[in-house]
Amino acid sequence: MDQLPALGRSLENVMGPTFQIYAPLLQQNTQTIKSVTRETFAYGPYDRQQLDIYHAPHPRIVNGRRPILLFEYGGGLVRGGKSLPIFPDDLVYANVGAFFALECGYTVVIADYRLLSHGAKFPSGGEDIALAVEWIATNQVGQGSEPIDLYIMGNSAGGIHLTTFLLHPDFAETRRKVVNGDGTRLRGLVLLSVPFHFAHAPESRGPVLETYFGDHEAHAPLGLLKTARREQKIPLDFVQGGARLLVMDAELDSEDEIRRPGKDFITEWLAMDDNESRSALAVDSMTGHNHISPVLGLSTGIAKEEAWGHQVAGFCENIRKFKPSTG
What we know:
Helix 4 runs parallel beside helix 6, helix 5 (157-167) packs parallel to helix 9 (221-231) and helix 9 packs parallel to helix 11 (255-270). The chain is built from 14 helices and eight strands. The chain has helices spanning 11-27, 30-34, 94-104, 124-138, 157-167, 172-178, 206-213, 216-219, 221-231, 237-240, 255-270, 275-280, 293-297, 303-320, and strands at residues 38-42, 50-54, 66-72, 107-111, 148-155, 185-192, 244-250, 281-286. The chain is α/β, with parallel strands linked by helices. It is globular.
């Protein structure tokens, strides 16, 4: 982490060097990371719709409920996978699954989604998450038969897809299934270093944004939130169901692409002046990290690298102290 400030904040400049910094740190813990049982399943009809499940050896049962964390990785809409070939031994994102399984007692689901090379086009990212959520709610995932506390964390482009799932009307029926009742219940959402809009994005991103979004101003997370405020009942359905939202950025994230858009999203959210909406939002930051390093820091066994993971777990566990409402 101490080497990260010298790399700057530009995503293009930090990506390769950050991978190089963290590779040996993760390789030192290969045995621990690999100790977590992993299974792979198809969750939809496309070849890309595959997910890995990392089984917690000791699930953390609270109020008779078992936790599952669905993680959606980043990659700028054009790259990424539940296992990155740039890292040896399938350590990334196995390290994320291992951290939350071993340290927190969470069953972790890491799902692939369609990229531009697979024909992805808005709102396909939301469709992929909705299918993964339906699969989790339908199948007996992990050890035990307890009802599920479901959390979803979206990093960067994965966070774009998560906001599509949360805010687009096409996915209201899937949301309805997991924001009510006693079974699989959506309890919390984590938006991790998400580009909430692209007003200050470099021109080089233009072709990808146009291909995926079409109208990226309306379809980006901030645009979806503005539309939802106008057209949907407030508080939003997942907030009415008791789910909470944590927005996090990294200290060394790009100001123009991540931090400023994040502030704009938070301002828009807080313009919903009802108590439920305001109370649903939490905001935090990942000290010392850049845009790439947080997920690589998990399972290194280094306290300051893994601190943000414990921040996320603390957010989730505070929610789990209370049983979900059944009204």
